[in-house]
Amino acid sequence: MLYLVGGYGSVGRVVAEQLSVHFPGKVIISGRNLRKAQDLATELGNTVIPTAFDIDAPHSFHSVLQHARIVVMCVETKGVELPRYCVEHGISYIDITASIDIIQSLHSLKQQALDNHCMIITSVGLAPGLTNLLAKHVLGLMPSVTNIDIFIQLGLGEIHGPAAMKWTFDTLNSTYQLKSRRQSVWVKSFTEKKTTSFPGLKDEKERPLYNFNFSDQHVISDTLNIEEAKTYFGFFSAFTTKLLAGSRKLGLTKILGKERIQTMLRALLKVLPMGSKKFRLQAVGWSRDFPGTKQVVGVQGSNEGYSTGLFTAWVVRQALLSTGTHGAFHVEQLYSLEDFMKDQSSTDHMFYFQRQNDNTGGV
User: Fold this and answer.
1) Against a cut of 0.90, is the pTM above it?
2) Residues with Cβ < 8 Å from 158, sequence gap 6 or more?
3) How far apart are the first and last CA of the chain?
4) Paired residues of 294 in beta bridges
5) pLDDT, tens digit, for every residue of 55-75?
6) What are phi and psi of 23, to 5 degrees?
7) Domains, the chain
8) Cα angle: 24, vertex 29, 35; to 5 degrees
């Protein structure tokens, strides 16, 4: 059985919908709110099984998960009680978290996963996840790459759930450690600007983006064996991005960390959508030996939450085929961008690849 924790949330419901097509009657959707799980099961023609589950109640794990083959965490959460239980009982575990601290905690369970012949897969979603595969593809196209920058641009038209919004604003106000082979420095999130264009798209204007503590940059330096990686984040609206950066500099963004303010923002976005639902992800790599030449790999799509669910469901299906693979992995250690692209012919994802030269503008 495939067990989706938070299976009726904005991402979880997409994972449930996708997996129910391939494995009808084999997908369990769960969370604290049984009614929401039941409503989604009805919506999906009862091809999934609803159940109530509280991840903060370890005494219930055995009775609830005794038939689980894979558990998928579809919401941002803390603690390793559930994943530890899973790997100790030979149940594979997949998590969509974007928090590097949680990811590192999950990878500390690698030996238990090896001993009990199961897998932990992290860096699953758009960022991290698809961004990791973009970066891996950059290295495949240009093996001399030593540095990779990841750019994430979102529209303002999509409404995110409470957990996702809380994570975003907490991260906005955070300070984090950025390591490279040359040095280790502490940086404030959303204070270092870098401009980039998104080639191959109608709008190729230079856009401002700012450093942000997504986990992909911390991971790919090791998994891809490069000197340094950095992730930058911004919105389609350059004005909004600059306004947020200015507010961060003045310390005004701290108010966005308050739950009451976040609730008001979600309510406002429901009645007054302020932008598109498109997203752009881009990895740009270059070599210290050839600083003027860059390899760009990117993708544009719409509906971030839906695309995150699609990617997660794809990873689950791949994991079911990886019967002899055990341990703890980031997604780029198991799969490639080509693997994902082969499965995306029916989506609106548009991938692009370009080799650029600073002297000629692009080749």
Assistant:
1) yes
2) 277, 303, 304, 305
3) 49
4) 286, 356
5) 999 999 999 999 999 999 998
6) -135, 60
7) 2-122 (3.40.50.720), 126-303+342-357 (3.30.360.10)
8) 120
